[in-house]
Amino acid sequence: MRSVLTILTGSVLLTAAVSGSFPFETIQLTEADVGNFSSISFGTRDAAKPLADDAPECRAFPGSSDWPTDEEWKQLNVSLGGALLRPIPVASACYKAGDFNTYNAATCRYLVQQAGRSHFWLDDPLSTLTQWPQGATCQPALNPVGNCTRGGSPEYVVNATTVKHIQAAVNFARNKNVRLVIKNTGHDFGGRSMGAGSLSAWVHNLKSFEFIANYTSDVYSGMAVRIGAGMESWELFNHMGASGNITVVAPGGGTVGAVGGWLASGGHGTLTSKFGLGADQALEINVVTADGQFVTASSTINKDLFWALRGGGPSTYGIMTSVVLKAFPPITMASVPLSFSVNQALTPAGMNFTFPPGLAPSSLNSTATFWKGINIAYRYGTKVLDVGGYCYSYIYPLGNNSFSFTTTHNIPGMETAEISALLQPLFDELNSIGINVTNPQLSAWSSNFYSGGRRTIGTAAPAETRYRSRLFPRRNWEDDELFNETFTAIRRSIEAGYTFHGIAYSPTREVAGSPGADSAVNPAWREAVLHASLMETQPEGISAEQARERDKKVERYLDRWRAVTPGSGAYLNEGDPAEPNWQQSFYGSNYPRLLEVKRIYDPWGLFWARTTVGSEGWEVVTEDGYPFSQNGRLCKVDG
To answer: Is residue 154 part of a domain?
Structure first.
């Protein structure tokens, strides 16, 4: 027996009963609900296997002969109790011309100037925080280019507040050959939550929480929490405080979903070097599979599905509704910043930032000294990882051979004197080459640093940033020549004008523990000491050909990163949809087994997103020609 504290929106329920699911998960689709509406009937996986290759060449699409009729959509809405939405892009308010005739100057100003200060974008059923996959057909702007169309946004959305809603959405999409996508907050850099002509299962409102004081299974015994699939990181941090100042591994970004796609791709956070990746924390996962069934996956039931869901990629095997995660005693985190620049202070384009007194970056006149300091700082970073910490850094190209570097060394569970002893050799070495580091500032906070009952500030309006990434293994730090080659490759990409974002972690199998060490997490993560991203924001209004040329240019620099990390990989959630040999890069040696699991649990290929397991047989046929846009019909690849 385990004691539990369940916290629901607006109420607190104390119970001593074993709780394997939330109340919203007990509301499920039944055969009686299906009745005569066969469009939401359950599937049979065994029966589907011989039919998989005979599936239609394309998913149904608005205007196609197999697109569901208006009456069928109405019937679906009745089955859902009114939870079916047909929202339009909110930025249509900025356009005088387009498909929606909803121009409103005041609303547009709010979207551009104020919406990012709230949860507006996160709570919108269509919006994602990266717009290029949508086709950039309806961007928020005071003086927009072109007209507003739906583009790659879903056609319909199911506002899921029960398992029944998700089951009906899954069954309808499968039976009617409609493309299905999944969305929570919209922290999606690759277009997985987008899809023209699709039905979206929106799980953002599944926010229940349960603290389990004594959880016992064959692989774990200790504190745990169960959280709903829609919970954001800041909400989870608040619950940590309310439950007695426990610690749970969560995304570092306060508005990122705390499970779902984050966990399914591995999921890094502030405690990754201490306790492992997000996927390493999962003990049970409740999920709706492609046949519409609601099942639990754990170390004892549906074990192959449990393995795949933890790191084997999102939007692939099912739709998570809740997850049980490990919980730990409270831990204090300390942060020590470091920054320096050459030829110019830190003023990247578009940033409005003032350093606190004493924390302004050391300004240099020598580019050679700047890059030598970069090598020293990153080389020393592994010492922070080895005590369970992480380093969070950016290198900004500022033009005219000017660059700026900023990082924080974040260290859990150590006293001030210990932290000073750990970092002083780094500061001494920097001082010895002329980078002045005096009176480094230390700040400390609890691991539940978002606690306090507050709602975090939202996020900026959707933008056009493209992310490419690579996992750099420890061996690149252990060999002097290879280390220098590594940072020469990184330096060349920054000198070309791309922003570099580096997060140093070390989520080894030993740190992952049980059951995390036995999961589908990309094996490259277990050897990594640096997850690095190259970031580029595409200008508004560029043509498809211009976009392709920009892609080719940045890929030349990514190829240099790949050349110094043979056999490593990249993090799917912050990876490039153009990643060559993506099966190896994102999944490593796990890919063949993951493909087997995919074929078992989703023989229809219902769950699809680019570079997810089994996705190679389908592609989005776009009219606009933009690379990797979701603004088109999903069809089988020719041949």
So the answer is: yes
